[in-house]
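Practice problem: predict the structure.
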Amino acid sequence: MQCSLDDSLGDADTEVCTATEPLACFEVTRSRDGGEYHEQDQLAEETPIALIYNGISHAVMLATPQDLEDFALGFSLSEGIVLDKSELYSIEIQVQKNGIELHCQISSERFTELKNHRRTLAGKTGCGLCGAESLAQAMRYPPKLQSPVVFQRSAILGALQALPLHQKLQQQTGATHASAWALADGTVTVVREDVGRHNALDKLIGALAKLERRGDGFIVTSSRASYEMVQKTASAGVNMLVAISAPTGLAVRIAEQCGLTLVGFARNKAYVVYSHPKQINPTLIKN
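Answer:
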């Protein structure tokens, strides 16, 4: 089944203008302290984003319209559509009246594989496995991670403290998730934001692939840790995922199986380690 923007958005008579910027400004009426105030408010945008491979529409996701090349590359890698960034030859961004199309040109070998293992996704904000046509397609188990890394507790706490400072869209709108890359010492170096937690992670994975990430580090997410967040992190070859909220039971089982250290409820200088706790040194190192 082919998924297109037109199929996903319904009657063309009801379409609205495509948002191409991450922020929208609206006149609002705010009630506060017994009074009403008219003022401007900034909101995070979500735009239908179609991922099209070699001319064939594959998925439509609702996402924040920024860092779209990172999104296309990260989605392609985390979904196994390409195995290396070199197999994604080009990305062309086309703004349509009812959304944005990302035209991705991939190698003929990968395109043949894609046609043989079609997944049809009609993505909504925070969507996970919707649209998978079978259980085999839905449950993709990441390979076992190599060379376990030991992280310091101080690195986790440092990254958590730094993350809010890098969440520019969240500061302006209060509506976006973030995924961040932290070095082994906890220094946050790359952050991507989106209204969808999976989208933010895909954007980060794409950015890291373009930067040809070197050395050990881990990913911090402002969301819960679902199965797909674990799957995407492990597939990117990252050894630890730190989530501000809770994991799911399936996420913990997959993390245990593939060798990923999964940390949840990471906030207020505390956290819970759900898998592979020996890969975290609990000693708080003083500077």
